[in-house]
Design goal:
By secondary structure, this protein is mostly helical. The chain is built from 6 helices and 2 strands. The protein has a two-stranded antiparallel ribbon with strand order 1-2. It is elongated.
């Protein structure tokens, strides 16, 4: 049974609210756990990617998909895989991006304006290929809270 977009959005909102209880250190540790799990399940991920590649190549042969798009779908090169994993580590090692005052000004007596960084919140992401982008986006979302 498939879930409706509204149900998925509601679940995402609940997960976002729960994530606000995590400390920056816990979010960074979660990212390192994601990296470890990707490393542990590399063969499984690459096997699924291989199936995707076969299906995509069939679509190219049928004239329904472009060859350059299929090339971006491929995760099998060690450079691409390692770069994806390094990206998770790099994001985990970034300073906490939230609750930083990036702009402040006095508008009037007793009236000050502040721009403060905050968590991204719930995301809807649409992309055509490049499965490593899912990991990039998820890493940034986790880091930001």
């Amino acid at each position: 049974m498939s879930r409706s977009a509204i149900d998925i959005a509601k679940s995402a909102r609940v997960a976002f609210e729960a994530s606000q209880l995590l400390t920056p250190e816990q979010r960074s540790n979660a990212l390192l756990t994601v990296r470890e799990e990707l490393e542990r399940r590399k063969d499984e991920v690459l096997e699924a990617n291989k199936k995707d590649m076969i299906a995509a190549e069939e679509q190219v042969a049928a004239g329904k998909l472009s060859a350059p798009l299929v090339k971006r779908l491929d995760l099998s090169s060690s450079e691409k895989w390692n770069s994806m994993l390094q990206g998770v580590t790099d994001v985990a090692n970034l300073p906490d991006p939230t609750n930083k005052v990036t702009y402040a000004t006095k508008l009037d007596d007793g009236l000050e304006l502040y721009r403060v960084t905050c968590p991204i919140g719930v995301l809807l992401v649409i992309f055509e290929a490049r499965p490593e982008v899912v990991v990039n986006i998820a890493s940034l979302a986790i880091k930001s809270g």
